[in-house]
Amino acid sequence: NAGVTQTPKFRILKIGQSMTLQCTQDMNHNYMYWYRQDPGMGLKLIYYSVGAGITDKGEVPNGYNVSRSTTEDFPLRLELAAPSQTSVYFCASSPRGDYGYTFGSGTRLTVV
Amino acid sequence: GDSVTQMEGPVTLSEEAFLTINCTYTATGYPSLFWYVQYPGEGLQLLLKATKADDKGSNKGFEATYRKETTSFHLEKGSVQVSDSAVYFCALSLTTDSWGKLQFGAGTQVVVTP
Question: Which of A33, A100, A104 sits opposite B43 (nearest CB)?
Fold first, then answer.
């Protein structure tokens, strides 16, 4: 079982560039989430989705966008990269609320 | 709003020592509580969970009991190994909705030396 797959694992972006972080899960989970992890700060929720076509903002959505056209895929888009977006990004999925998450291995993004 | 507070790290201990990581929470309702573990260079893995007061979650020798009276969910292990070196996160499910959103603590790094 692949679980949750994130690509790329590492990326360096220049200020103002755009990119999409990919996230795919093969467990048929309805709920999917994007978090960012900054040193000593825990994880902050960026966006989440409760099913195909349904997304909503989390705690720190500014500068990001998402879409959910299928159950499997939940890409995260950065439109105009800024140094403040330097972080490790994790995608996670869950079959329902309160069940707990399966996390991907993360994308380490540096904006210079 | 709902929040989680964990003890600061790093926690450094010798192999076979007893480990406790404190976690307390603030919530307006009755959240589910989780412990996740993150090994170096990897994503987080669910270690254990408890969904109601007095529940005990356990896995891989780790235990935590949901204490509503003290709003705590402390993680314990009786005899740690070098392989337990990792960052441990306490989390709660937000009580304001049912979409499974989690609030994480800042994480506690544990270093076990031989």
Answer: A104
Nearest to B19 by CA among B65, B73, B84, B66: B84
CB-CB neighbours of A8 under 10 Å? 11
Query: Which residue is closest to B10 within chain A, CA to CA?
Result: A40
Q: Which residue of A has its CA nearest to B95?
A: A98
User: How many C-beta atoms lie closer than 10 Å to residue B52's C-beta?
Assistant: 11
Tokens matching residue A43: 């994880």
From first to last of the 112 residues of chain A, give the pLDDT tens digit.
679 999 999 999 999 999 999 999 999 999 999 999 998 788 999 999 999 999 999 999 999 999 999 999 999 999 899 999 999 999 999 998 778 899 999 999 999 9
Q: How far apart are CA B31 and CA B24, in angstroms?
A: 12
